[in-house]
Amino acid sequence: MSVSNKQIISAYRQLFRKGLHAIQYSKPARYNLKRVLEDAFRNGTPADFNARKIGNTLLFLSNAAKETGLEHKIVKNLLFVRHWEEAFASRKFESKTILQWDSSIHKNAYRHFEITIKMLNESMDMCLR
User: Fold this and answer.
1) pLDDT, tens digit, 9 for 90 and up, residues 11-41
2) Fewer beta carbons within 10 angstroms: which end of the chain, N or C?
3) Could you give the C-alpha distances from 18 to 14, 48, 51, 96, 122, in angstroms and in order?
4) 3-class secondary structure for the chain?
5) Which residue, among 71, 59, 86, has the nearest Cα to 23 in the 3D structure?
């Protein structure tokens, strides 16, 4: 089954709209949401498109927008981590020893974070990033 460009654009817009509602249009998070979605849709292929997963993700984002429960906290913290991950990657270091020590800690923490997000996506059949 081939996916049309119109379906992909519609999915992007729906995810962006529901994501903005979920984060309540907060300023740092809305820019991170846009960047994460753009990366996912630019680097993804039409074969990666799964309407069921997108539907489940939209439902998750709708629940996150309704009240500040667990779903809202997951989305908020996901974008918070993405923000600081990008900020850390762009930092300039004065010492190479600090760089090696600091980056190994961050790589390990982000690896665990990515595994947790992957397991959440698998268990709930979603596509969070």
Assistant:
1) 999 999 999 999 999 988 999 999 999 998 8
2) N
3) 6, 20, 16, 42, 21
4) CCCCHHHHHHHHHHHHHHHHHHCCCCHHHHHHHHHHHHHHHHHCCHHHCCHHHHHHHHHHHHHHHHCCCHHHHHHHHHHHHHHHHHHHHCCCCCCHHHHHHHHHHHHHHHHHHHHHHHHHHHHHCCCCC
5) 71
Q: How far apart are CA 36 and CA 119, in angstroms?
A: 19
CA distance 121 to 54: 11
What value does the mean pLDDT take over residues 27-56? 89
